[in-house]
Amino acid sequence: MLEEAVKGFGSVDILVNNAGAYEYIPLEEITNDHFHRLFDLNVLRTILVTQAALPHPRKTGGSVINISSVVSVWVC
Question: Do you know which SUPFAM superfamilies this protein is assigned to (predicted)?
Answer without folding.
Answer: NAD(P)-binding Rossmann-fold domains (SSF51735)
